[in-house]
Design brief:
heterodimer, A: 114 residues, mainly beta, seven-stranded mixed β-sheet, 0% helix, 48% strand, globular, B: mainly beta
Chain lengths: 114, 114
């Protein structure tokens, strides 16, 4: 078990470009969560999956944000037509169903939109 | 709906002094409660959690927290601060028996003086 892995660690992109981030959860965890964290703030929930089903996506920040988990394993988060306000740390976490064992976070992807 | 309030965005202590980080929550169902620590440019690491059972919970690195239902609190303590404890600390709540999506507080930065 190597924990939750996120790729890339850092991404610098020009405004208007599309970006995609990947998260590989702990293999036995069936829940996967995406959060956004801006400077000086706590993580802000975006969306989550149970296996391949996306059970909550109303908190995605706009229709430019989308996430997939096609085979119930890794997940991707895509941001289309990036804006400077999208600059943040994007965190992925995984858990067993119920979350009573806690949520394991990856190291995050830091996005900078220039 | 659930929410978390962390009192004090910064807490400063001397090395060897008591650490007390405050967390109050609101939840419409019995909560699961968590404390996470975040070091610069890293993801979140679970310190401890309360789900059911004993209300005094011990975690890693000498930290502990007590769930007080009547006060809707889950304050984090450590008897003696070390320089290595300097980091950002986040309290989180999820609704046990509900969606299990954790909601985070804004965080408290712990500063340890020699």
């Amino acid at each position: 078990d190597t924990g939750v892995s996120q790729d890339p660690r850092h991404k610098i992109t020009k405004r208007g470009q599309n970006v995609t981030f990947r998260c590989d959860p702990i293999s036995e965890h069936n829940r996967l969560y995406w959060y956004r964290q801006t400077l000086g703030q706590g993580p802000e929930f975006l969306t989550y999956f149970q296996n391949e089903a996306q059970l909550e996506k109303s908190r995605l920040l706009s229709d430019r944000f989308s996430a997939e988990r096609p085979k119930g394993s890794f997940s991707t988060l895509e941001i289309q037509r990036t804006e400077q306000g999208d600059s943040a740390m994007y965190l992925c976490a995984s858990s067993s169903a119920g979350g009573n064992y806690g949520y394991t976070f990856g190291s995050g992807t830091r996005l900078t939109v220039v | 709906a659930q929410s978390v309030t962390q009192l004090g965005s910064h807490v400063s202590v001397s090395e060897g002094a008591l650490v007390l980080l405050r967390c109050n929550y609101s939840s419409s169902v019995p909560p699961y409660l968590f404390w996470y620590v975040q070091y610069p440019n890293q993801g979140l690491q679970l310190l401890l959690k309360y789900t059911t059972g004993a209300t005094l919970v011990k975690g890693i690195n000498g930290f502990e927290a007590e769930f007080k239902k009547s006060e809707t609190s889950f304050h984090l303590t450590k008897p003696s601060a070390h320089m290595s404890d300097a980091a950002e600390y986040f309290c989180a709540v999820s609704e046990g028996g509900g969606s299990y999506i954790p909601t985070f507080g804004r965080g408290t930065s712990l500063i340890v003086h020699p």
